[in-house]
């Protein structure tokens, strides 16, 4: 149809189904626009359709297609990872309309064009080639951004295509396994005639040559590089496309793209040229019956090469609140769109022309790659190439030989090893210490005012070196590509060797003399050269001195926007000494080692401060900080603390550091993220996204639904599935909890309810009959006697069908509403009453005559009345249980002897929004005490139900340990923020501080009531210890201080008088007799214990890393079993609930002559 100006048109944005095939419907968003040309669909594959387009199989790689379209950059594009976006909007702001008019006027200077009343702007931003997103091989980082602007005037319509001056990052996409070049142009589609349908005009902007796609960003038809303008007429037929007429560039733009006026000195050897990756052009195919008609624009003039990267030509649009689409102000070169390109240890800053990345304090690099100051650095890579040795006509082939390097950054010492080196070439490689020594330059020890290579350019650069050996003039070329820091925190490099080496006999040693090398710096280019002498000592003792010339060029991409940032001096000198080289013929290894310093080229007095000489003695994971004169300090690198013996566990400190669908593995000074099955890394190398390939996770078993006995996994197509809990369980399907049907009154009111996993049972109470859902009370003795008396007087005739009646004059007992005998019984026929007991027996001397009724008391005891269980407190059955804290709840696990009855584990107490740390149990009153650090508070509740009772709620900061003295009825606790140990009665009254000095991080605390002793541990990293005192605070003594790390858990076994502890630093469980101080190890190699409790021969501890309760046999010194709760998270305090108190003194047998008890009671009474 032909729409004259400002007709209402409906615009559709369509997203091709990429991830889940045809099972996912197209998502359509609508927007009302006014435009001269009908636009029916904006497609993520880089085109705008005039009619609703068919499936992508009908046009990708098969142009011209059978429908009308404008192809801005057609290909199989992908935006499924969330980085790629398609923005569109109608714009009528004066600034945008003016800029669009300027583009049209420049392209058609002879036409009297007028400013359009509105434009439609479509932006394809950060689009990836389909199938490359998340692969991690570098292709996923290649993104294309381009725009199409449609402008209408009263006389005609125009299409303005804008491409980034920095170049397109990929030129083809894979279609059905074949590489297909991207395309741009105007396609008329099929044209229906009177007798047949023919293929209409396909006006191609690009051709079947790869260069034509590159030229989209390098040339123009509108006088501005990367901007192409076409008049598409007043008709939707695309039959008369007119390209812009100005293919030349203005002089100022040409000048701006030439070489800088002040050129750096050019080396006299070949400089490697960085080129775009090449793809094979593919000739498109068409149906036999349809012959396309092509028209190509006139050829344009080339522009000078090596132009500096410029910003993409983008028409910026502001957000419009009235449009119900995802449209916002767009500018590629801002931190908002590029923050992910910066290192995780860098900040992104916006400048007037773009953004730059800057390493944070404590890190150094170029912002794209940042490493911690002082931390050792590793480099891994492969070595390939062909090397001739001596006069040999046959080369030695090197294929993927492993290269590993390690540098101690705080003294500049670098180590390099290359494996699988044949003996025929290994000895001759010894002089080439710089083969891996580039890492020495990159991480050289910096002198004041100078910077090493990594500080300046980061870890992405190219290096080409040429070596000329004397006197034989052998030449060797070395090419290295450094690809940045990988997910393992290693610098990645690929090396290629090509050329000839002078022969060195097997068994010879090589000594390389110290040398200096001058580096010359310019933007994006570094050059250096040096002469190096080396000495060869042959196996027969012959000594030869040789030399070679070394020249190298390093190219890189710096951030051009931050002009204020100081650059390195134009020249710096690398000093290399303590050089060691060796070929290990037995293991086929070539090894290099050297010390590197970067500083001034001038002869000045060398720095004497140990930080600049490297002789400081700091740990290899520490940074040396210079002070006055020869003073210095050692500062641990980021990720390390203390003296380097203990490292920060980033996975534990920040559980979300790897995001969802990933597993975090802690490493010394860093961490590693690994994706779960079915997920792959996104472009940031850390976030895990779902694989594009459809996977039935339910059938494979790679789903994250709960166990099959609790949950059902239902496949929903593609790679999607749904988790749902089975009947009898509740939750989201990934975590299913047993429903306690007994809390829902499923059984009859006169029945017992027993909850089971996924179900429940009902059983009528004694005295009732039924199936538990319906229960009827059994007849009592009174009711049976009454029925018997009534039945004996009932006849057998017609009236016997009605209610039984007793015989005249027969005594019938009276029963109350519960079926019990009324305390007063009367016999109306004889006119007497008397009292009876509970069995209906007459009580002597209570019978009275007619008209008198005896005063009889009820002998039935009323049922006891008490508090009913709270819905969040579940009474436990008699016997010993383990109680442990897990965030906002306390769970219990019954013990069968020493074995945990895991299937009967269930929550005892739910305390939402609280973090419970320590738990303790009072065996006298059957009460559970606990601390929570969110209140903070100390509280208690009964095992049999009832309300939560606050005990201590004031003057607390972080109560982390709690202990009960069941004999003297006292409560002890530690506060790691107040650094105190305190005591009160069990109700929180008569509180006092026992200790508030010489405490740093007190946590676990236990009592020995039989001897009136108190034990606690302080996990101060600088001086961990376990202490002991009397309960009144006297005789404080350090019990253990040697060979401790992080003593988190502490318990006392009253039967064997053994004090045991679990140490997360030494990863051991140990016990000792505190009286004789005999210490022994129970187990070692545990992971991260938190709390510990003793029961009989077993020790039970909670482990943060395993998220489990672990049982250890103290006698056999072996781990016996573990319990993993349904909900996996950190476990905290643990205790037991013995069915009776430990043997010894109880609350009724306190002897006030015991000094520690009597003194403590006096102190408490006096406070």
UniProtKB/TrEMBL annotation:
Coiled coil: none
Compositionally skewed regions (Polar residues) per UniProt: 282-294
Subcellular locations according to the entry: Secreted, Extracellular space, Extracellular matrix, Basement membrane
GO cellular component: basement membrane; plasma membrane
A Gene Ontology molecular function term of the record: calcium ion binding
InterPro entries, alphabetized: 6-blade_b-propeller_TolB-like, cEGF, Cueball_EGF_LRP_Nidogen, EGF, EGF-like_Ca-bd_dom, EGF-type_Asp/Asn_hydroxyl_site, EGF_Ca-bd_CS, G2_nidogen/fibulin_G2F
Domain (Thyroglobulin type-1): residue spans on this chain: 779-856
PROSITE patterns associated with the record: ASX_HYDROXYL (PS00010), EGF_2 (PS01186), EGF_3 (PS50026), EGF_CA (PS01187), LDLRB (PS51120), NIDO (PS51220), NIDOGEN_G2 (PS50993), THYROGLOBULIN_1_1 (PS00484)
Domain NIDO, chain residue ranges per copy: 72-235
Pfam short name (any one): EGF_3
Location of the EGF-like domain: 331-371, 607-643, 647-689, 694-737, 738-774
LDL-receptor class B repeat residue numbers: 926-968, 969-1011, 1012-1056
Domain Nidogen G2 beta-barrel: 375-608
Region annotation Disordered: where it falls in the sequence: 249-308
Main subcellular localisation: secreted
Disulfide bonds listed in the record: 826-833
A GO biological process held by the record: epithelial cell differentiation
UniProt entry keywords in alphabetical sequence: Basement membrane, Calcium, Cell adhesion, Disulfide bond, EGF-like domain, Extracellular matrix, Glycoprotein, Repeat, Secreted, Signal
Protein's name in the database: Nidogen 1
Biological classification of the source: Eukaryota, Metazoa, Chordata, Craniata, Vertebrata
């Amino acid at each position: 149809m032909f729409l004259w100006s400002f007709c209402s048109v409906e615009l559709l944005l369509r997203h091709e189904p990429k991830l889940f095939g045809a099972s996912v419907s197209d998502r359509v968003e609508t927007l009302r626009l006014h435009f001269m040309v009908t636009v029916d669909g904006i497609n993520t594959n880089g085109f705008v359709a005039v009619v609703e387009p068919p499936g992508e199989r009908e046009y990708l790689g098969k142009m011209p297609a059978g429908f009308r379209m404008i192809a801005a950059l057609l290909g199989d594009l992908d935006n499924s990872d969330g980085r790629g976006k398609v923005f569109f909007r109608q714009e009528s702001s004066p600034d945008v309309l003016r800029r669009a008019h300027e583009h049209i006027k420049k392209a058609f200077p002879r036409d009297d064009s007028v400013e359009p009343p509105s434009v439609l702007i479509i932006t394809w931003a950060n689009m990836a080639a389909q199938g490359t997103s998340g692969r991690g091989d570098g292709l996923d980082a290649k993104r294309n951004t381009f725009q199409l602007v449609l402008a209408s005037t009263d006389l005609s319509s125009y299409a303005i295509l804008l491409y980034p001056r920095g170049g397109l990052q990929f030129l083809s996409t894979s279609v059905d396994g074949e590489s297909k070049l991207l395309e741009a142009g105007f396609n008329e589609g099929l044209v229906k005639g009177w007798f047949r349908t023919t293929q209409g005009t396909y006006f191609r902007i690009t051709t079947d040559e790869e260069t034509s796609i590159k030229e989209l960003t390098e040339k123009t038809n509108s006088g501005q590089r990367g901007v192409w303008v076409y008049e598409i007429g007043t008709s939707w037929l695309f039959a008369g496309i007119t390209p812009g007429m100005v293919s030349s560039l203005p002089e100022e733009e040409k000048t701006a793209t030439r070489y800088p006026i002040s050129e750096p000195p050019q080396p006299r050897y070949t400089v490697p040229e960085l080129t775009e990756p090449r793809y094979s052009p593919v000739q498109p195919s068409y149906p036999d019956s349809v012959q396309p008609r092509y028209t190509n624009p006139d050829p344009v003039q080339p522009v000078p090469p090596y132009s500096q990267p410029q910003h993409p030509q983008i028409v910026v649009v502001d957000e419009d609140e009235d449009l119900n689409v995802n449209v916002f102000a767009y500018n590629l070169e801002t931190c908002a769109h590029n923050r992910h390109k910066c290192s995780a240890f860098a900040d992104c800053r916006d400048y007037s022309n773009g953004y730059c990345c800057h390493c944070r304090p404590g890190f150094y690099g170029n912002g794209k790659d940042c490493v911690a100051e002082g931390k050792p650095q590793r480099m891994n890579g492969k070595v390939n190439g062909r090397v001739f040795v001596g006069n040999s006509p046959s080369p030695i082939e090197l294929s993927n030989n492993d290269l590993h390097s390690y540098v101690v950054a705080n003294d500049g010492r670098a180590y390099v090893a290359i494996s699988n080196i044949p003996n025929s070439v290994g000895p001759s490689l010894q002089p080439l210490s710089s083969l891996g020594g580039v890492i020495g330059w990159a991480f050289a020890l910096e002198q004041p005012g100078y910077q090493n290579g990594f500080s300046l350019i980061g870890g992405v650069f190219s290096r080409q070196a040429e070596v000329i050996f004397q006197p034989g003039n052998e030449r060797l070329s070395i090419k290295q590509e450094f690809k940045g820091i990988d997910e393992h925190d290693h610098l990645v490099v690929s090396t290629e060797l090509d050329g000839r080496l002078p022969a060195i006999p097997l068994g010879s040693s090589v000594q390389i003399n110290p040398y200096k090398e001058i580096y010359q710096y310019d933007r994006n280019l570094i050059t250096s050269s040096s002469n190096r002498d080396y000495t060869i000592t042959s196996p027969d003792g012959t000594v030869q001195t040789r030399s070679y010339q070394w020249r190298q060029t390093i190219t890189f991409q710096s951030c051009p926007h931050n002009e204020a940032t100081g650059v390195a001096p134009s020249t710096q000198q690398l000093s290399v000494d303590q050089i060691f080289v060796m070929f290990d013929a037995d293991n086929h290894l070539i090894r290099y080692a050297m010390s590197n310093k970067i500083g001034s080229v001038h002869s000045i007095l060398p720095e004497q401060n140990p930080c600049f000489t490297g002789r400081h003695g700091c740990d290899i994971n520490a940074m040396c900080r210079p002070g006055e004169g020869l003073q210095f300090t050692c500062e641990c690198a980021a990720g390390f603390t203390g003296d380097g013996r203990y490292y920060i566990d980033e996975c534990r400190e920040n559980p979300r550091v790897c995001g969802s669908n990933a597993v975090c593995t802690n490493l010394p000074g860093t961490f590693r993220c690994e994706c779960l099955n079915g997920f792959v890394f996104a472009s940031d190398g850390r976030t895990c996204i779902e694989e594009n390939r459809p996977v039935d996770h339910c059938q494979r078993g790679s789903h994250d639904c709960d166990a099959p006995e609790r949950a059902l996994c239902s496949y929903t197509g593609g790679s999607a599935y749904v988790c749902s809990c089975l009947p009898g369980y509740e939750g989201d399907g990934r975590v299913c909890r047993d429903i306690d049907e007994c809390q829902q009154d499923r059984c009859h009111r006169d029945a017992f309810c027993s909850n089971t996993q996924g179900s429940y049972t009902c059983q009528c109470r004694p005295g009732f009959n039924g199936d538990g859902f319906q229960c009827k009370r059994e007849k009592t003795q009174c009711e049976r006697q009454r029925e018997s008396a009534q039945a004996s007087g009932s006849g057998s005739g017609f009236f016997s069908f009605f209610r039984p009646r007793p015989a005249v004059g027969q005594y019938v007992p009276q029963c109350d509403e519960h079926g019990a005998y009324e305390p007063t019984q009367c016999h109306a026929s004889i006119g007497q009453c008397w009292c009876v007991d509970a069995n209906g027996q007459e009580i002597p001397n209570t019978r009275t005559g007619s008209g008198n009724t005896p005063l009889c008391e009820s002998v039935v005891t009323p049922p006891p009345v008490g508090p009913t269980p709270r819905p969040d407190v579940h009474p436990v059955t008699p016997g010993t249980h383990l109680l442990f804290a897990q965030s906002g709840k306390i769970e219990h696990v019954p013990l069968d002897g020493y074995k945990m009855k895991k299937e009967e584990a269930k929550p005892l107490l739910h305390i939402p929004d609280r973090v419970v740390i320590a738990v303790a149990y009072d065996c006298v009153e059957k009460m559970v005490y606990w601390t929570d650090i969110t209140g903070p508070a100390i509280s208690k509740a009964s095992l049999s139900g009832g309300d939560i009772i606050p005990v201590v709620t004031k003057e607390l900061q972080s109560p982390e340990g709690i202990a009960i003295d069941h004999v003297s009825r006292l409560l002890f606790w530690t506060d790691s923020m107040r650094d105190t140990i305190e005591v009160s009665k069990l109700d929180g009254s008569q509180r006092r501080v026992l200790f508030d000095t010489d405490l740093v991080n007190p946590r676990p605390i236990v009592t020995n009531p039989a001897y009136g002793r108190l034990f606690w541990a302080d996990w101060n990293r600088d001086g961990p210890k376990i202490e002991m005192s009397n309960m009144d605070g006297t005789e404080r003594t350090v019990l253990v201080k040697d060979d401790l790390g992080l003593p988190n858990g502490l318990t006392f076994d009253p039967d064997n008088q053994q004090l045991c502890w679990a140490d997360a630093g030494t990863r051991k469980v140990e016990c000792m007799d505190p009286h004789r101080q005999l210490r022994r190890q129970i187990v070692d190699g545990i992971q991260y214990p938190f709390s510990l409790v003793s029961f009989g021969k077993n020790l039970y501890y909670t482990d943060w890393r395993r998220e489990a309760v672990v049982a250890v046999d103290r006698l056999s010194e072996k781990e016996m079993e573990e319990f993993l709760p349904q909900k996996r998270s950190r476990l905290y305090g643990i205790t037991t609930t013995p069915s009776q108190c430990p043997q010894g003194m109880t609350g009724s047998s306190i002897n006030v002559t015991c000094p520690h008890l009597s003194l403590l009671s006096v102190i408490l009474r006096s406070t």
